[in-house]
Batch of 3 targets.
Target 1
Amino acid sequence: MAAPEATKATAVCAGTGKKVAAATGKGDTDCAEGASGCVDAPTVKKIKTWRRSRSDRLALEANRAQEEGDMGRAMRANVDAAEVLLGLSPSPCERSDTRFRLEADVWDMQNAARLLADAATAGHAGGDVFGAITLCERGFQILERAAALSKGDGLDLHSREALLFASSRALMEIGLYDLASERLDELARLAYQTLDPRSFDRVALSGLQRKLRTQRQKLENGDAEALMEEISVMGQNLDDKEAGYWISCVGELSRTKEGRRELVAKGFLAKKDENLFNHVSVARRAAHLALRYRVNLRLQKALSEAGLVRGLGDPCVAPRSLANDASSHLMPEAACRELARNRLAVVDGVFSAATMARLRGELCDLRRARFLRSDSSDVCNPAQEARYLPIALAPEDIDPLGAKLRASCPATMEVVQSLCGLPFVLEECLGLELAVPTSVMAACYPPTASYKMHLDSYALQGVESDVPRKVTILLYCNPEWSSGDGGVLRVWAPFDPGKGPHRDIEPRAGRLVVFMSEEVWHEVTESRSERYALTLWAMTARELSSVIDGRGP
């Protein structure tokens, strides 16, 4: 695709951080604000020419590496080529005057996305499946920016098609067939919409769709060979101890009626399979679902660590950097003693009814705007709609979403700030060294949604690679909730996996629930009304590679 003649460019002044127009018209010699005469039309052209030439050379290097069978080098070269087009590797002009950088235009963004699809294909072939999916997700986000800049006009679909195909293949490789199917369905719509001869290879698409349907049908029917193949592949994509723990656990539970009921309760066995005669057949089905659950968590963590989504891999800050006076009133001394003694504490009325009503209204608005999303690959909790909200430490130019939420959801962000101060209180209460992720989860359980019995961290169960959650902090905001609405938080005594008596806690507005993430098994019963909550997890600081102080210099 030939590069279109640039008619508009944007630069970012390093001194102010503001986006400013760069001159591109013939004879136009005005410059970007604060760039000291460096962003005139000839300079813009020189930068773009350098970027595209450098990117082409790197893409050729990637092709050579792929022909030589060096998929790791091919992946890295394609990523480098994409980053050059996006301006992440500065040109000589930008290095000589660091007060500005030229933003990529729509054409370069689309080509960068296509290069990331090529990098994902090479990474997948080289065995880095999670890296391949992460690169595809990065490409999708770049195309979203391109669509916003162009307002949807004149976008080329080939980059998106390449990303969808590469992503689908990688998702199938790790057994996440629901998401792979969604990607293939979108690819089919794009491929069959256009008569463009350059459009995606429909034969390859049809073949992949057939393969996916066949494998899903085999798994649904309990085909022993297909299940063992999936268990083997997914086990290879997890830490050996983690995969071994889950396979061993479900295998043991599969031997008894009581154990099978527990597997059903935890979402690792379909109800229809509970009474199968052969316990080995039950164990295969349960191991497949358990490993799929863990593989999906690993993928979410990888995407979060790459900065593509908020969640399991967010950076953490020291609790003292978030301490505030409002937080100290949320956990009175009696509640702290109860938490230390029983590993769970419940405090009612921590926020006013008016604040909870505003919080509920704002979360409803986020759901109506489809900001909250479900995850069909989560076998324990597929119907929950959730999203991680930033705790709004960063300024607008660094974290535009946080700034947007501060403006549109002031009650939510005010409550979030108060919750984030709690880990500082809990450090003294429990004698722990904690760390606070830079996001809080907002969630809605629509009618019929539930969450199977689980722990928030399995680190003490032998899964050392699990997210090091130490304390779970829940706040409910459901005015006029009644016992007939269901959706209770059901908890058991510490380390009791559902065998002894339980306690039901209704999700009433202004109710704070705090418990030890590694010790308290819990579930959410089926909800019959929309049920909203905020959740913050405090991490074990010593298990993290780094904790940002957060107080600044």
Note: The chain is about 50% helix and 15% strand.
Target 2
Amino acid sequence: RRVHGGNTCVFWREMLVVWLALFLGRERFDEQLVVKPLDAQMVQMVWKFRFEKIVIIDEANHHRLFPRSVSNFVLNRDIRMLSVFLTRGRYDHTEWGTPYLSPVPPQGAQLKVLVDSVNHTSTRPQTSISSSFHEIASDLGSLLCASLTTLTWDTTFTPSHHSNYFREGYLPSETVCTENLVPWLNLLPCADKAGIGGVINTETIFSSHYHTIGLEAGRECLDQRCSSVRMFLEQTLMIVTAAPRNEFSMKSMANGGQALSKCVLASSSRIRVIADGTIGMQREFVHVAFTSDSDTQVEEVQQSTHWTAPFDDNFKDVTVQWQSHNTETVAPFKAIRYHTSESSSGSPEGVMHIVLVNQASGDMRVWWTEALPWFVRPRIHTLHVHSQPISLHSNSSQVHTKSASEILKAIDLKRPDSDKAMTLLSMSCVVPEASIVHVKYSFSKAFVKWTEHPPDPARGFDINPVTFYFQNTDKTGSITTNGMLMLVATPDFSMPFNALCLVCTVVALYAGAVVAILTRNWEKYLADEELRKSEGHPLVRAVRRLIQRIRPKRVKTE
């Protein structure tokens, strides 16, 4: 009877949970942790938290899981899609291999926004796209404690083959610290107290080789009148940290051995281990062990395997061990180098040099768009493209170089509409098999006024990173490079300060004399002058004063 009664209680409890799920079915929260071994004794950890909510526009909507600040922000700003990432470090595709997320966000801040062309849900008057983008950047900066307000309409751009309502911007010099992580964690229902979020350790994150904090949100209409919308919010945290001896333990690395517990508000919580050895991660075998209160599961498999385990109260730890070996198979697009070279520091001219390396078998199609600031003016007539073979295989001598017309397929230059807007330069080329392609073009630098320089002019100006998209017969992907610094001619910023100090000193002396003359009592001054003249020579007055001091004073008697 006790067993039967216990089962009955469990049955009714599960029925209550199902009824609440149906009643509150407008909201859903899922979380997962992905662990992926990399080359060079590194491991990648990706936390993904996803919210979904159905909102009725004309009704009052209760927010049980979905953050209300994000919901109001998405609806009031008419946002169809937005993506913001704060990153520190550089992902090394050559040493670490293919990442789980692609493209990997570059160093600094990255913001992408797509607004609705028609104002469906907002009751405020329709504003211009530029002012809407400024409001969105300001609200996101307040939400994540980041300086996104420096992103303006002129410092962002619309890539090729995108709608005019889409804007993209970068801040390569933006830093990431705990001030950004804390508000990001506060958006989670269980924060970092339970669930997958309880695995997050601040010390592990900020001591890693690469880490990025991301937030993606958006909405889609469920009917033609857009009276109801489905909103989503996806928070992403990715780190790449060292794994000595190709061993990884989530419990010892992530939360320092603390007890793990399930987030009861999550619809699903799971942990995945991905050992994909097809690109840059060739391994002989991989050991994966999920430890729980009930049993321990250990599997030994070959390449290209995936494991999934639920993250519940019985879960204890997951350990991964792998071994790498040298192989002749290489990544189809192993390295992309993008840099600039100038004749001298602060020179009015420079040369942009792009290096594309194809180490795979078969030709590779590559296309990209460069967003250059207003003071960089490219000269397309100086464009020079050439290729050279590299030795990869025994038959590399059979690879022939191609001409520039065979490599460069398309080029498009879009001049800015305003004086301070960006210049867009799009190119598409074919990188031959086992070859290196060099793309060079010269540019001139416009004169930058001393009021237009950043606070640290000696550091230089930040140039936006570039995302390269590549495709061959069996692979499609993208790689985003980090931004770079460009030096321009800087004036002597101490000269205005010196001139200001000199002018202030002269004005102070002149003003003091003028004020003294204008405020002096001339009648009293002239009377004192006449008195001094009547007393005689100053020497006579001095002798008189001396005699008065020596002469004894008379005492009055009654």
Note: The chain has a mean pLDDT of 79.
Target 3
Amino acid sequence: MNLQANKLNNDIVPNRDSLPIAIIGGSYAGLAFANFLHRNSIPYVIFDSKSFPFTHVMGGAGFIVPSYDLIAKKLEIESSAADCVRGGVISRKDVIESLLQKVEPNLITSRRIVRIENRLGLFYLHSIKKHNSSKEQSESILGPFQFVVGADGVLSTVRTSALPRTFLIGDARWVNDRWYDFGLQRINRGADMALLDGLELGQAIAVEKTVPQMRVPSKYCAWSISRRRTRRRFALLLVILAILLVKCRGKCQVIFHNMIQTLQDVIFGDDCLNHDRQNPLMTFQFHGSWMSLDGTYAVLTPNPLFWIQLSVLIILQSLVAIILAFTIHKGIVQRRGSACSHLLCWGFILPFAITLPFYLIRFFNVRNRAVLLSTAATPTFVTFRCLEALYGFSPHSVEESLWNYCMYCSSVIEFVFDEKTKSPARASGNDVMNKGKHFAMNFLLVSLLLSFMEVHAYQPFDTHASITSVQEHRGLLRTTMRYIRPGHVGNNFLSALLTSLTVATGTAAFGFAICGLAGILTLDAFDSPMFKSTSVSDFWGRRWNRLVHGVLKRGVYKPVRKYSSKTIAALSTFIVSGILHEYILW
């Protein structure tokens, strides 16, 4: 049977349980696991990067496998003739040859797996095939599979991916769990441990063939292993920091004090953001009677101190948001509906997030209005994202892992998540270029419009009506006509356009930075709301500040709608939106 043609190239499989299990790695653990699946009639496919035959194992006949007799009986494997020569003791090479007897038809060689992808709960393998006749390589996508088992050694692709419902056996698992003995036990008993791993995982899978009902020990789960490794590294980092603080407490205090003093005096101490004293790059004269534009104009460079202040505050708030995201995921997402989750949300996280900007403003003595506005990023997003988590309305895929949730909560710009892989979508080179062009264009438009509006005291159009036109109307009609005059409407339009471009420029700057540095695709907060909107709902719902629209919808409207009518939910959202804007401006 040609497994590669019949099993791997079918994109639509009606019965998930009939899909094969992908085993990456054809050494001790992978072959032992495959033999157990073969014995229990569970479909499987083995992939190995080496070409066949690959039975040469480092060490040759110099090592033995003490547990092989027990394992061979359970797997019903016949020993090779070589063990008769060695007095009943089988070598590692003989183990490989005997394990290949039944599973070799399901073995695909010269196929290196470079990436694992999860599409709607099914797994697809991105592979590179080596051709023996030439140095050329061909790439292909194999799948779907029920789940993936990594037996691919120390440099395991499965362990690097750490996706849910992927498992590790052999060296791929022990390289993390036995880190403290520097691999000595793995070297001495590596073959034994690998065979026992394959046998035990096969027994767990044979008990429950349906994937959602499987009860596999957590020590084999790639995601659990990744979390344990992360916790160990974090604990080690804390221990190192604690030792440094104890040993160098005096020096650390001096360094910390100097850092804070530098932030307060150098970055946030100068008042140049409110009174620009830069020397112009160039000046030019403009002669024209249109809107009183006669005069001398100067071109100034962007003030880097503004962007430094903005970046420092955003980074500090992002670090705080990561800690809060960890707390939300552990205390609210994983315990949703409990009294502790409500107490944590309403009693700690929301009060802390709302009061944080006042401490930042007072500590750094922030005076620039635009920078003051940026301090509202944490309370705005953390507050509503906490409510999303409390009532179960977080965006799709963000709660799949702690990593996704921390990235989602720590960023002032919302990430675009891939529905197939359930992870942040990767930004291509074109995406980065488009983000950069979008930011540069918005920055130029804001600079020109702000300069134009400031020269005319933000009222470039004449709003004074003639005495005759005013006397023609009385009472309420007279007041109405005053506000719908062309000059007044024009001034308001330019002010609204300036507000839209200013906020869009700030969000575009950080979106461009995230795409370029982290390679993650971000959501555009504004989509030309002043010129491309076709209706009021299109303006507010799909084009104007989609970040705030999304958090209000998921954090206020949907939770209220869950327990009341649409009218009450819409009214509640409108009231909270008004309070939010008053809080930000305050």
Note: The radius of gyration is 32 Å.
